[in-house]
Write a structure and sequence with these properties.
This protein is of the alpha/beta class and 324 residues long. The protein contains eleven helices and nine strands.
């Protein structure tokens, strides 16, 4: 099983065929950054058109067993997620509706303060809000995974404590390996993994030591050392691959509709576009490089298989359906 638990590519037949060449069985795709409920539904409709146009390459997944079907029919299962709670607006009933439409991950904040939690770019982190506590309980009930990838430390730790089901950091790396606002301190990773949650390792260059020049060996050794500390079973991949996107998209990711100035976020303000990917991971055909790099660290075949997708598959099995 090979699963990438975060991509935001410029979706096309080329990308879908590369997924199949790379034997990628499932991909968690972002369908919302700042979109409202109605705008998110339009994005789902656009995906429905992709499913209709390329039924031999992709299919929508609602459960882990859908990934089994995709794999058996040589297709890639597509799982919807939101990087912001904006699609639920201020209406708790929209959590269940979006789950029925296929949304399986939702971040409680994206860099900024939201109605639910604090983003990692805010100066102060008061933690989970009153609404946030209600939404966490509702997400737990319906089977929507709480994602804290862009959230601040206190908010993430509180979310892990409040949630009755495991939560996830779908795309980030340890801050101890490469300090960045989006990377996670050990106490945050511990809070997530001790509750049975998952950390997906990011290939986005601003999250990597030495950026685009990060070596495969450094990346895989980082994963191996993280496994030593927190347990291999809690780790997977969330590459944050933004393949073929124009630089206008990264402006949307950073600025949304909330500022009239430019929020460069992580990275060099003199180069505000997408950074180049490492040479050993350009697109979905390069997952073999990561598998080989993990094996070279001394990991067992079973451990490598877990990180390449098996651990996410087990997590989906337990957390994509209603509680009880």
């Amino acid at each position: 099983m090979r699963i990438d638990n975060l991509q935001y590519a410029n979706w096309s037949e080329k990308v879908f065929r590369q997924m199949r060449e790379g034997q990628v069985d499932a991909v968690h795709v972002t369908i919302a950054y700042y979109e409202t409920f109605q705008e998110t539904v339009r994005n789902i409709a656009a995906w429905n058109r992709h499913f209709a146009a390329f039924p031999d390459l992709i299919m929508q997944a609602y459960t882990a067993s859908d990934i089994d079907h995709a794999k058996a029919t040589n297709r890639t299962a597509i799982i919807f997620g939101a990087q912001n709670p904006s699609p639920i607006e201020d209406d708790i009933d929209l959590v269940e509706i979006l789950h029925r439409l296929g949304l399986r991950f939702m971040q409680l904040s994206y860099n900024n303060q939201s109605l639910l939690a604090t983003g990692c770019y805010e100066d102060d982190d008061p933690g989970i809000t009153r609404m946030g506590k209600e939404i966490i309980a509702e997400m737990n009930r319906v089977g929507m995974v709480i994602d804290m990838s862009h959230s601040a430390d206190r908010s993430t730790i509180e979310a892990a404590e409040l949630s009755t089901r495991p939560i996830a950091i779908t795309h980030a790396n340890p801050d101890a390996w490469h300090p960045a606002r989006r990377n996670k301190r050990d106490e945050v990773i511990r809070a997530v993994t001790e509750g049975g949650g998952m950390l997906g390792f990011s290939l986005y260059p601003h999250h990597l030591k030495n950026g685009p020049d990060c070596t495969l060996q450094d990346f895989c050794e980082m994963i191996a050392r993280t496994a030593d500390r927190f347990g291999t079973q809690h780790l997977g991949l969330g590459t944050d691959l933004c393949q073929d996107q124009p630089d206008s998209v990264v402006t949307w990711m950073r600025n949304g509709r909330w500022t009239k100035t430019t929020d460069y976020g992580e990275g060099d303000a003199t180069n505000p576009g997408f950074p180049p990917m490492p040479s050993w991971f350009r697109d979905n055909r390069d997952f073999d490089n990561i598998a080989g790099g993990l094996a070279a660290t001394g990991m067992t075949t079973e451990e490598v298989a877990g990180i390449m997708g098996g651990n996410w598959y087990s997590f989906y099995t337990d957390n994509f359906t209603p509680a009880g």
